[in-house]
Structure formats: structure tokens, C-alpha cells
Amino acid sequence: MLLSSRRKWGQAGYTLVELMVAVALTGIVTVAIYKSYISVSTGYDVQDQLVEVQQNARVAMDRMVREIRMAGYDPLEAGTAGIDASATSQQIVFSLYDDDAGAMTYISYKLGVDASGRKELQRQEGASVGAGTWQSVMLNVDALDFGYVAVDGSAAAPAAAVGVEIAIVVRTSNEDYGYTDTRTYVNQAGTTILAPADYATAKNFRRRLLTAIIACRNLGM
């Protein structure tokens, strides 16, 4: 009877090989599940960032469009309001009459750098060109371009323009190491405003290009 009991006890266990196989299979399944989770989680995070950057860029673009469209507004007909001659492709400077203040105001937008060295869209407003403090409008802006348009649609000097073309390139706040950006970003005239060489050390960010054409209501009248 004792021998029979020992045989039954020995037959009821698992061998070391079986345990090792079970552990290995469990490890493989666990790693697969973990990788799937990371992939899905990263995908959701990237999409959330893209939605956020798209929304923020749209808000910033709408603000510029709304204000630039009013360039030249001058109910007193002093003849001094409009796009300033100092405006460039990197910085727009324009003036309009501020009904609340009862005086002319000068507004500028440019691509600036914050205290930590990050590029950002900046805005300035004051009683004269260059007056006022630069304020941050949106972070993570890699490129900003302004084009000035004449009545016939051709390029014009800023002071003679009746319309403005804007192109802005924004990016996500975090890098996606499973993605490499190789795009060349151009404005509506086909001019390159951001090339791969410009972001060689930041090629894992996802970027979006937004453009707008603005007809200034009070210019060219």
C-alpha cells in the first residue's frame, strides 16, 4: 500500500521542464499584452496631442485673421492706418483705430522665443510701432510666414498691400519616436518656410501646416 501511494503522489506533480515551459509562455503572453497596451496608449496620446495642437493653432490663426482683416480701419480718415512699411515675411506690423481707446493702435505678430528657448507665436500692441510688451499667443510654433498681396493678386510691398497670406507650422509638445518627419513645408506661393534641415534635431515631432488668405476690409478702398 505504501509503494502504491508513493507512485500516485509522484504522478500528480509537474516536471521542471513543464514548469519552465509554462513560465516562458506566460512571459511571452505578458510581453505581448504589454506591447499592445503601450502601442494603443501611445496612439491615443499622439491623437490627443494632434487634436490639441490643431485646436490651439486654429484659435491663434483665427485671432490673427480677425485682427489683420481690420488693418487700416480709420473712421477719422487720418490716412495713417494700414500695414506698416516695416512689416516683413517674418513679422507683420499694422495699425487701426481703437474705438475704445479713441486712438490709433499698432499690432505686431512674430515668431519669438520664450525664456526657456522654445519657439512661440508672439503678439505686441502699443501706441506706436515697437511699443508694448511681447506676449505669448501659442507655444510650439516652428515657422511663421507673411505674404503681402496687391489688388491684382500679385506680391506687393507691405505698405501697398490690400491682403495678407499667412502660413504657420505648429508641432506637438511631445515627440513620437515611432515617427520621423521628413516634410518640406511651403506657403501658398510655394516658398519653403520650413525644411527638414531646419528641424534635424527635432524630427520626431508631428507637425501641422495651417494657411489663410486675408482680404483687409479697409485697404485699397
Question: What does this protein structure show overall?
Answer:
The chain contains two helices and ten strands. The chain is an alpha+beta fold and 221 residues long. The chain has one domain (42-215). The strands form three sheets. It has a five-stranded antiparallel sheet with strand order 1-2-3-4-5, with helices on one face. The chain starts with a helix and ends in a 6-residue tail after the last strand. The relative contact order is 0.14. The mean pLDDT is 88.
Note the topology.
Layout: H1 2-11, H2 16-69, E1 82-83, E2 91-98, E3 103-113, E4 119-126, E5 135-139, E6 141-149, E7 163-171, E8 185-186, E9 192-194, E10 207-215
Antiparallel strand pairs: 1-2, 2-3, 3-4, 4-5, 6-7, 7-10, 8-9
Percentage of β-strand residues: 25-35%
Strand order of the largest sheet: 1-2-3-4-5
Instruction: State the shape.
Output: elongated
H/E series, N to C?
Answer: HHEEEEEEEEEE
Uncertain regions spanning at least 5 consecutive residues: none
In brief, what are we looking at here?
By secondary structure, the protein is of the alpha+beta class. It has two helices and ten strands.
Task: Name some characteristics of this structure.
30% strand; 29% helix; alpha+beta; 221 residues; three-stranded antiparallel β-sheet; 2 helices
